[in-house]
Amino acid sequence: MPALRCEALLLRSVDFGESDRIVHLLTADGGRLTAIAKAARRSHRRFPGTLDLFNHLAIDGRVKPRATMAFLERAKLVHPFLGLRTDPARYALASFLTEMLDRLSPEGIVGPEAERIFEFAIESLRLLERTRPTPSLRLLLELRGLDALGLRPEFGRCVRCGRVAGEGIARDHRVHFHVADGGIVCTACGVRLEGLIPIEIGTLRSLKAGLASPADRLDRIALGARMLAQAARVVFRFQRYHVGVELRSERFLDEMLPVVGHESTAPPA
Ligand SMILES: [Zn+2]
Questions:
Q1: Are 134 and 87 in contact (CB under 8 A)?
Q2: C-alpha 233 to ligand 1 mean position (Å)
Q3: pLDDT of 197-207, one tens digit each?
Q4: Could you give the CA distance from residue 99 to residue 23 in angstroms, rounded to a whole number?
Q5: In terms of pTM, does the model score above 0.85?
């Protein structure tokens, strides 16, 4: 069996049988991976308290060709992210992001795609350990999570005709966002479309900055109440439409860190 040796983040773990544990991991160089840790609940030598949520690990194991699960033989703690357990808002947002990664990260990917997703995961948890999240930070981290997973909304040009924002695309400093097309549309293209979400140029600029900023400076981008409500309509409706699954931890997150403009029970746009 080929060896498996890399860094990983523990996204979910469930007890299995008398002493085994099944873990869902996000690996640094292969995307999502499900593995069984035999006798994990008995062996403190191979798994010294390491198989817990949010743990950043260095893992050793084996991959069996065509098997649904890998075998995890050892896991050493790199960083436990204990700071995420110190308050409910941090815990709720970290849980939501890890659930999103668990549900949407592809398996068996390699190279930059796998690295981008893993980097997003570690950097976000590091930021949340350092900073108590605000509604702005929640929104921007969700947006970056979607981006890392290959779902980036188009904020730069009209998704229908390609006209760049600024070349007559905005009227009254506003553009419109089309959820199904996943981006902004110009005034001409928007005429025939229904259900467009108006968005001000300033809000668009903040969302673009949120995508471009280094992760550790994301908490410096603060959206005012009106911009936040606009951005929330765009990002959350885009998320619900393009992700297509309801994430279980979203309701808890809405209670701990509400964002105006976001109604978790509303149907997809
Ligand atoms: Zn257009």
A1: no
A2: 21
A3: 999 989 999 99
A4: 13
A5: yes
